[in-house]
Design a protein that fits this description.
The complex is a heterodimer of chains A (70) and B (609).
Chain A (H helix, E strand, L loop, with lengths): L1 H14 L11 E2 L3 E2 H23 L3 H10 L1
Antiparallel strand pairs in A: 1-2
Helix pairs in contact in A: 1-2
Chain B lengths: L1 H23 L5 H6 L6 H12 L6 H10 L2 H32 L4 H8 L3 H33 L6 H49 L3 H10 L13 H7 L10 H7 L6 H31 L5 H4 L2 H7 L4 H15 L3 H25 L2 H24 L4 H17 L1 H9 L5 H24 L76 E2 L28 E3 L8 E3 L4 E3 L5 H17 L6 H8 L2
Antiparallel strand pairs in B: 1-2, 2-3, 3-4
The chains are: A mainly alpha (70), B mainly alpha (609).
């Protein structure tokens, strides 16, 4: 699981460098440049990635700290 | 005068928030004053940590930057922060919170001292981070003075404006401590979001719809703004390292200690990229739209592009609200003042005998005394060195790289048992050396830096910021540091009052060297020959033509190792932050391996399950 999640994070970081969109100035839906649309999607992907990390890679001992001090 | 009155009303509100927070606090407790008793709720925690990290650059600076360099600005600064900052909050912030709660730490230095069993290394890091934080505070006061002067049409002079802003910030930080600062930051974040939505709606209406505007841009000479054809890949890559600085800033690290529960981090890291999206997307998009609606602005004018768009369509009342939004941006130094005071109080005063001699209650008053002292000294410097604003703005740019390059030190302390204080010392000395080397190289290469071409005056052909009664914002040469290659999306007060007429950082995007000096010049960036890069042309002006960008070899005998663009120094085309982070990590690793490990007691304390 840990390796899978590490690979996921690495893949997301690599996907930030979308060289295939570098010189593409076309518009999506007639008003949104493709490169910008990609990075809007990337922001959503970042949020989803963090949600996955929170769900599957949250250090349990930190929650224990919460309970101790609650 | 109406806009100025609304801004004064805004200042009164933030002052009230600080004093209200004072009433809610438990008197005399250091933990309450410096970390709000570690009791911030989920919404305030999210919005305050986001607001602290996300200043004027998000709305104002990013629009000006996008106006010149196009949609790539979003990927360069927003989406990179949207993944790296949540990752660092998840990895580092949560651990700092946990260790702080367990061992009573309030600052990151308290943890580092204990972790490496060394007071000296902690003091060294405390002094280095404090020195890197000081320019932010001075720039904040300068920006406040200039902004108020401009918004009031000169009726509130710079000195008085700076004093009003400094007194307001010092007052609510003095009374409210961390709770007051967090609440004010929350209020400011809501204001940013409202500002973004308002701007987007009003401008969409006034330009007659976005599809037609975008279509016109794609068919015109500014079509390069819709792609990254003029953005070097090395620069884009280097920017990915800048957000590592976020959690190394003392004010962010301390803020991580304020959450009531660790679960607050869960929501924060998931929602953080969405918050960035909500603020940055309209800002970058509008900056590109403005290149068609108001073409030909100079770099300094482009800094105000969103205000210009709005001021042509708004009433004085709305202009005042926008002015309040700008003031919220320039007053982002509140958490930095509190952090600096916390560092002085906890890491120096209390550690070196103050707590023992005067008792724990004296810490709060020492903290408050430091807040007043920092405010006073910053104000005096802001007055005395008004013409030298560019020095502090430059310092901020370098400090971003410095904080980012300290991230390996913190990661090693938290996750690598074998890391040693000697490794941390070597990495920190490396960072300090690099910051000074970067400064030195920038200074000695100023004379040979490719100069942006002169532009025809653009403001005469279109409404300036004040055209519709809207507030104009004066900026210093490097203000709006979004253009600064070493800048980071959040943190730096971006709306500043530097009057020094030095070339703007944003002029990076204004074109290569005019004519190009053949001696020692080279095309910049990857895929040399691709137009643009740091010297790419801006829309409308002389840079509107596609020109090969240029960088100058600082030491021709070293080839492309050290290159100088119009604004910054690069190393083989990469921004200094990249080799700084790599060097810091390597030194941490290598020096730790050849020096004795920490004691078993310390390893058990920090690494036992």
């Amino acid at each position: 699981m840990k390796i899978g999640l590490a690979l996921l994070v690495a893949a997301v970081l690599v996907l930030h460098h979308d060289i295939w969109n570098w010189k593409d100035a076309s518009l999506v839906f007639g008003f949104l440049p493709k490169g910008l649309a990609y990075h809007v999607g990337y922001s959503l992907l970042a949020s989803a990635t963090m949600a996955i990390l929170v769900k599957y890679a949250w250090p349990k001992n930190l929650d224990d700290d919460d309970e101790v001090t609650a | 005068m109406i806009p100025a009155l609304i801004v004064f009303a805004y200042l009164a509100v933030v002052l009230y928030i600080g004093i209200f927070a004072f009433r809610k606090g438990s008197a005399g407790s250091g933990e309450d004053f410096f970390v709000a008793s570690r009791k911030l709720g989920p919404l305030v925690f999210l919005l305050s940590i986001f607001g602290t990290n996300m200043t004027a650059v998000a709305i104002l600076g990013s629009s000006g930057f996008a106006y010149q360099r196009g949609i790539g600005v979003y990927g360069l600064m927003a989406s990179s922060s949207g993944i790296v900052i949540p990752l660092t909050l998840w990895l580092i912030g949560t651990r700092l919170w946990s260790l702080g709660k367990k061992h009573g730490h309030i600052t990151q230095v308290q943890f580092l001292r204990d972790r490496w069993e060394s007071g000296g290394i902690g003091t060294f890091i405390a002094v280095v981070t404090a020195l890197m934080l000081v320019p932010y505070i001075i720039i904040g006061v300068m920006g406040g003075g200039s902004t108020l002067e401009t918004i009031s049409g000169g009726q509130v002079p710079y000195a008085i404006g700076g004093a009003i802003v400094a007194i307001t910030v010092v007052a609510y930080v003095f009374f409210g401590g961390m709770r007051g600062t967090a609440w004010v930051n929350t209020f400011q974040t809501v204001l940013f979001l409202a500002f973004g939505v308002t701007a987007f709606t009003l401008i969409a209406k006034s330009v007659g719809g976005f599809p037609a505007t975008m279509q016109a841009i794609s068919e015109g000479p500014q079509s390069f703004l819709l792609s990254r054809e003029r953005m070097p890949a090395e620069e884009f890559f280097s920017y990915m390292f800048i957000p590592l600085s976020a959690v190394m800033f003392p004010h962010i690290a301390i803020m991580c200690m304020t959450a009531e529960k660790v679960t607050h981090f869960k929501r924060t890291v998931v929602l953080y990229p969405i918050c960035i999206l909500l603020i940055w997307l309209p800002s970058v998009y509008l900056g590109v739209v403005a290149s068609k609606v108001i073409p030909g602005l100079s770099p300094a004018e482009a800094n105000d592009v969103i205000i210009r768009l709005l001021s042509q369509n708004t009433s004085p009342v709305l202009a005042g609200v926008l002015g309040a939004g700008i003031m919220a941006c320039v007053m982002a130094s509140d958490s930095q003042i509190l952090a600096l005071s916390t560092v002085f109080t906890e890491d120096l005063f209390a550690y070196y005998g103050g707590r023992k001699k005067f008792g724990p209650k004296a810490e709060v008053w020492a903290g408050r005394a430091f807040i007043v002292l920092i405010g006073l000294v910053s104000y005096v410097i802001a007055l005395a060195l008004k013409e030298k604003a560019n020095i502090f703005e430059l310092a901020i740019r370098f400090a971003f790289s410095g904080f980012a390059a300290l991230a390996p030190v913190m990661l090693a302390a938290l996750f690598w048992k074998r890391s040693t204080k000697w490794g941390a010392l070597a990495a920190t000395v490396w960072v300090v050396g690099c910051v000074f080397a970067n400064w030195h190289l920038t200074n000695i290469s100023d004379a040979i830096a490719p100069k942006p071409p002169k532009r025809p005056a653009a403001s005469a052909m279109r409404g300036g910021p004040a055209a519709g009664g809207g507030p104009a914002v004066q900026r210093g040469p490097q203000a709006g540091a979004p253009g600064a290659p070493d800048a980071q999306p959040g943190g730096a007060p971006q709306v500043t009052g530097g009057p020094t007429p030095a070339p703007s950082v944003l002029q990076t995007a204004q074109g290569g060297a005019p004519g190009g000096s053949p001696e020692g010049m080279r095309p910049a960036g990857p895929g040399a020959g691709a137009p643009g890069g740091p010297g790419a042309g801006g829309p409308g002006g002389p840079g509107g033509k596609k020109k090969p960008p240029t960088q100058v070899r600082i030491f021709p005998q070293l080839g492309d190792m050290f290159l100088r663009g119009p604004v910054n120094v690069t190393i083989y085309g990469f921004l200094p932050v990249f080799p700084m982070v790599v060097g810091s990590a390597l030194l941490m690793l290598l020096v730790s391996l050849i020096t004795p490990p920490p004691s078993k007691a310390t390893i058990d304390k920090y690494f036992s399950k």
